[in-house]
Each structure stands twice: as C-alpha cells, then as structure tokens.
Specification:
20 strands; UDP-N-acetylmuramoyl-L-alanine:D-glutamate ligase; 42% helix; Rossmann fold; 5-stranded parallel beta sheet; 559 residues; alpha/beta; 9-stranded mixed beta sheet; 20 helices; single chain
Length: 559
C-alpha cells in the first residue's frame, strides 16, 4: 500500500505498528504560505517599463480576491477529497487575516493559528489570456514564523496528524526544519513542497545548512521544475527526480512539469504521467492542487500511478478556475470526472443530509462578519463625503431638478427601498429601472436631474450602458460602489464608498454584507438630507398616514 510503503520504510521514522496512525485525529496538517490572492487579468505579462490596461474577469470585476498560498491551496484540495485537515502558523488580527480564516472555515480546515504577526500575507497575481501568470508576494506573518514558534506553540497540534506538509516558499527554513522534525518524532509522514529554486530560498529564507537539512528530513520531496533543474542541472524531470532521491535520501520525489504532466521516483517505481487536457483559464496554484491530490492518493493507499492520476486531475481542475483554491460547488465533481484510475471511497465532508454545507456555523458567522464589515466601513468613510453629496442634491433641487435611484441586479431592490426612504424623509425620489433605462425609461430623467447609481463592483456592463445614456442626456451621477477605483467612481459627479471585504456567507460571493453596506451608506445620506430640511414628526406623519406608523402617530399633528 502506498501510504504504508512511505511510513514503514522511511529512513527518518521507526517501523510503525499498523495501528499507530489510526488513532491520530487528523489525516493531514500543514504550515506555510496562507495568502490572500489579489488576481488581475491582463492582456499579457508586462516587461520592464511597460504599461498595460487591466482587463475584466468574466463577472465584470477588475479584481478577484480569494484565499490562497502554497500550503493553504493544497490543504483545501485535500479537504474536498475527504481528508480531515488542519492548518497552523502565524497571522495578524487584521482584515486579510480574517478573510483567510473565513476561507479556512469554508474548506473545513481546523485552525491552530497565532495572531501575533505584523500583518497577514497577500500576493498580487497577474494572469494573461493564456493562463500564464506573474506573482508578487508579501509574505508578512508567514516569513516571521520561527523554529521557536513551531516548538512552543504548535508541536502538540503537529503530533495529532498522520501526515505533515510544509513548503520552501515563504516560511523561514529554520521553521520548516522544526516542523519536519516534530512530525518525524511523532512518526508522521512528512512532505516538503520545494516551490522556489534553492538560490531564491537562500536569498530570503535561511542558510544552506537549514536548506539541506530540510530536504534530507522530508520523507517525500515535491520540487517545482525550476527548483529541480537548478538543484540537479537536469532538464528531464524523471532523471532529476532520481537524482534528488539519491542526493537527499528521500523515499520519493515527484516533480510537476506543467502541461507535460509529472515524473515520480521512489525506491521501487520510476514513472511519468501525462497531464489531463483541459481548457486553461488560470494556471495559478495548479501545482498546489496537484500536491493536494497526491497526498489524498497516499491517504487512500492508491498505487503510485493512480495517486499521480488523482494529483493530475486536481491540477487540471484547478486550471479551469480563477484562483488556486477549489470551488466548493464543482471542483470535487470535476476531479472525479477527469480521474481515470482505480476507484476508491472518498467521503464528502461537505455534504450534510445530501446538501452541501461548507461549515456548520454559517448563521453565527454571518451575524458576526456583517457587523465587523459595517464597523470597518464606518472607520473608512468620513462625514464630509455625505455633506458633499447632499450639497449636489440640494443644488439640483434648487434648480427644479429631481432625484432618481437605480441599480442592476440586487442593487435594483436597494434602489427601490432608497427611493422610498428618501421620499418619506423630505427628498422626493423616483425609482429608475436600470436595464429598461436604455430601452426608453431614460425619458423619465430630464437634463439637470441627479441619478444615484448603485453597483457593488462599479463595473457591471448593463450599469455602464445606463450611466452612459444618462450622462449623454445631461444627468448628474452619484455613484455608490464597493470599489473606489471602479468605472462608476470615475464617471460620477459625486461618489460614496460602500465596500466590504467579506460577504459573510459560506461561499463569500453572494451579495449579503455588500447590500447591507449600500443601505448603510444611503441611509446615512438620507439622514443628512433630512436634517438639512428640518423634517419634523408632523411632516413625516403627513407623508406616512398608513400602516402601523400612521396608526401609532394618529396622523398629522400641530408642531
């Protein structure tokens, strides 16, 4: 059996009774880069001194923000394949850290995180039309992790696992060595992802001694092609895998080689496996997904060739996504559509009573996250912005102009509420249907009127057409968006920021907290306008004689 082969015969661990690892609580734990990936699309990867225009993602956004990082990525892929997975290390108690920890919860990763870092890690990723990418990393807290941190804070967590994975990418080499040695003492299988060439590692991560010690301590080594070539001078992946196995005494070496697949060398097996052919959207994290699948193959005791098939299936499925972490709704299914090896039983830990449930505390998390996001928004916006917007509306009204409110999708419903709220508090406002605007409804708006346009991304195609038509007809625009650099912001006469970092939902895509933010900001604007006009209870009662409000107020009364 594949797993038994590596554990029982590893030169770095004692011969294990068959039941030793059965009692462990986690199948896999990992430490290393856990990063917020900021993903931009570009026509091509730029050269020095070249300027390029950013392109839009398929949903119209200029920027996608997803959880990522060499370690977090492969742990997430292993988790969707049924492994009980944990992650440990250092972060900061900041917005990026909270975003990362929410992502860990979505992927069912048990967390053992200290929050004593200076800042949480992020990476800016530029992806071209072929799926190739350039990555610029800010390792932050990950790069601050020390061997002392590992031994003092995380050794008991490491010993709970059957397999430990770590990386040479952002984690200092002394911390890598410490994690590997604690795992070895606990008789766990150890896997080292050598993600960067040796020269880069020695420039930023530690000493030659620690580098060599890490590679010699790992049971299984997974270098990138570039790292393998630099270490061996061999361009052939299988020859390089053999050479590295002999040099460092690992039980096995597996090397990913992009669209050419992978090469594997162990004591008894040398083989290559071609990659699966798929339509590539983004190659970011394909090697990480590969490793997650490979570790799952070890866990399920697959033969080496089938473990590599599973690994390649994960890598291919990752290339069909934007970003490096799996899609909870589709990636597991896609992996098993591609995988053509021996069948095995992989429990779906994301299914509860036949329904996909990313994590159990979704309601509690939403209530917490939405309050945190509105609090963060409050800290980022100033009262003066509302005054400037109110000045514009007052100047339009003074000239006989009117106020309209519009939006596309969910903001359409917000615009209906906001137009009613403004009208009932002293600023008559009219709902404008966003998509119908370019089919004749623009006639509702006269030159000199002001239109409040709501769009979370500020980049939606239908919204752009509406704003273009309104401006052509002489309207003034007040933009409300979660992106202060968006197209809508640039086209607005006045702009109000209404951005959130997290939606509060398990998938972090469906508009929830962003809708609350839009209402929050526009309700504040309505208060500013209401205060300027000195609206009294008598005014309000006159405009709202019906329902419980009218019943409680008893209708208009004398001031």
């Amino acid at each position: 059996m594949f797993f038994a082969l590596f554990v029982a015969k590893s030169p770095h661990s004692k011969l294990l009774p068959s039941a030793t690892n059965v009692d462990k609580q986690l199948d896999l734990v990992g430490i290393g880069s856990m990063v917020v990936d900021l993903i931009y699309r570009v026509p091509r990867i730029s050269s020095a001194d070249e300027k390029l225009i950013l392109e839009h993602h398929s949903d119209g956004d200029l920027l996608k923000r997803v959880v990522g990082g060499v370690t977090l990525n492969h742990l997430a892929w292993a988790s969707i394949l049924g492994l009980k997975v944990g992650i440990f290390g250092k972060q900061a108690d900041d917005e990026l850290g909270r975003f990362l920890r929410d992502g860990m919860d979505r992927y069912h990763l048990e967390r053992h995180i200290t929050l004593d870092g200076s800042a949480s890690s992020f990476a800016s990723i530029f992806v071209d039309q072929s799926g190739a990418r350039a990555i610029y990393m800010s390792p932050a807290a990950t790069s601050e992790t020390t061997a002392t941190d590992i031994c003092r804070s995380h050794s008991s967590f490491i010993r709970r696992a059957k397999i430990l994975s770590t990386e040479v990418s952002q984690l200092p080499l002394d911390a890598v060595v410490a994690a590997l040695e604690v795992a070895r003492e606990g008789a766990a299988l150890t896997i080292l992802d050598l993600d960067v060439p040796r020269s880069d590692a020695l420039n930023t991560l530690g000493t030659t001694e620690d580098f060599d010690r890490a590679l010699k301590t790992a049971s299984i080594l997974k270098p990138s092609k570039a790292a393998a070539v630099e270490l061996t001078g061999l361009s052939d992946s299988l020859a390089a895998a053999r050479a590295l196995k002999e040099k460092y005494g690992c039980r096995a070496v597996v090397i990913t080689d992009g669209e050419r697949g992978c090469a594997f060398s162990s004591e008894n097996v040398d083989l290559r496996r071609p990659a699966y052919s798929v339509g590539v959207i983004d190659t970011t994290g394909a090697g990480d997904a590969f490793l997650g699948g490979f570790i799952a193959g070890i866990h399920y005791n697959l033969a080496a060739e089938d473990a590599l098939r599973l690994a390649n299936a994960c890598g291919a499925a990752c290339c069909e996504l934007t970003g490096a972490t799996p899609d909870l709704a589709s990636s597991r299914k896609r992996v098993f559509e591609l995988y053509d090896g021996k069948a095995f039983d992989a429990p779906d830990r994301f299914l509860v009573s036949g329904r996909q449930t990313p994590y159990e505390n979704a309601v509690e998390d939403f209530l917490r996250i939405s309050v945190e996001e509105l609090s963060r928004l409050r800290r980022s916006i100033g009262v003066d912005h509302f005054k400037d917007v109110a000045d514009l509306i007052e100047s339009v009204e003074a000239k006989g102009g009117r106020v309209h409110v519009t939006g596309i999708g969910k903001p359409e419903y917000v615009s209906g509420y906001v137009s009613a709220l403004l009208s009932s508090t002293g600023t008559p406002a009219y709902f404008l249907h966003g998509t119908e605007c370019v089919h004749g409804s623009a006639g509702q708006v006269r030159a000199g009127d002001v239109v409040i346009v709501i769009s979370n991304s500020g980049e939606t195609g239908e919204m752009k057409a509406t704003v273009t038509a309104l401006k052509r007809n002489g309207s003034l625009i007040i933009g409300i968006s979660g992106d202060a650099t968006s197209w809508l912001a640039s086209q607005s006469d006045q702009f109000l920021y209404a951005g959130v970092e997290r939606e509060g939902s398990p998938l972090n895509f469906e508009p929830r907290a962003s809708v609350l933010a839009e209402i929050y900001v526009l309700a504040a604007l309505s208060v500013e306008l209401q205060a300027r006009k000195g609206i009294t209870r008598n005014h309000y009662n006159a405009w709202h004689p019906g329902g419980m409000i009218g019943k409680v107020s008893g209708g208009p009364r004398e001031d």
